Amino acid sequence: MSDDVDRAPVAPIVWTFCGTSALHLTDGQYSLMIDPFFSRVSIARAATRKIAPDLNLIERGLHEAGIGKVDAVFVSHAHHDHVMDAPLTAWKYECSLYGSPSTVNVGVGSPLHADSMHAIAPGAVVPVGTFSVRVLAAKHGHPNLAPGEIKAAFPTRPVWGLRYRDGGAFSFVVEHNSATTLIHPGANYIAGALDGTTVDTLFLGIAGSWARCKTFRRRLWRSVVEAAAPRVLIPVHWDDFGAPLSRPLVLRRWSRGSFESSARFLEQECGVAGITLHWPRPFTATMMSNGNP
Ligand SMILES: [Zn+2]
């Protein structure tokens, strides 16, 4: 490492949450996005129609979030609410797309050049300037309406929503000289997957599974939150991703009860564990906190 890098001041990470598990992380010099999703196609529509990303909505969302630069786009799994807008986002910023082989097959149906699409697997470490992204195996939460792989390249025209099969799921550990961050979009766990990984901040997906049963929730808490031991926990993937981003985020109508129970659980457990629970303000650039008031 050169003296210049040694002497370089440590720039904090600034993050922006854009609904679902769409996140932008930057230190002002380099930046990355996880699961960008601005087209906001609902499950009902995806289950019954042919769907396609909407470049106007993507550009509007990125503009509203103040995202001027992205150096790499990562996709946690290939359901439409995670992957659909990722290839066009990478294309817009002329950067690389990283995801499972299913994600790469979705990318083939976009204008993104094949050289910019990279299949990743658990254990991979991807350097993005001052960041380093480690890929962890993860499990999709329940329910999973489109399990399996995307085995063929997507066409450039709209496709049936259920063709967006999950293709396997990842979590991402983002290392940076100011902080270590775990992005865990799926509300599920693999026992032992986080052994040896402790982080400062955890972005935790709380869709679906959290309400499944108290035992499951307790195991998930132990395997993910206790294992990663964050100082700050930021819940994501709690909003109705079929609702347009032109209005404030809302909860899914049928999941309000489970959301309230999840929120109570998180408040209680974070309080006991001394973890700062931070509900994110969408489309608001926020400095990564170390958990101190
Ligand atoms: Zn999914």
From TrEMBL:
Q: Name one GO molecular function term.
A: hydrolase activity
A Pfam family reported for this protein in Swiss-Prot or TrEMBL: Lactamase_B_3
Q: Which InterPro entries match?
A: RibonucZ/Hydroxyglut_hydro (IPR036866), UPF0173_UPF0282_UlaG_hydrolase (IPR050114)
Superkingdom assignment:
Bacteria
Keyword match Hydrolase? yes
Question: Record's SUPFAM superfamilies?
Answer: Metallo-hydrolase/oxidoreductase (SSF56281)
What keywords tag this UniProt record?
A: Hydrolase
Gene3D superfamilies in the cross-refs: Ribonuclease Z/Hydroxyacylglutathione hydrolase-like
Q: What is the designated name of this protein?
A: MBL fold metallo-hydrolase
This protein's species is: Agromyces bracchium
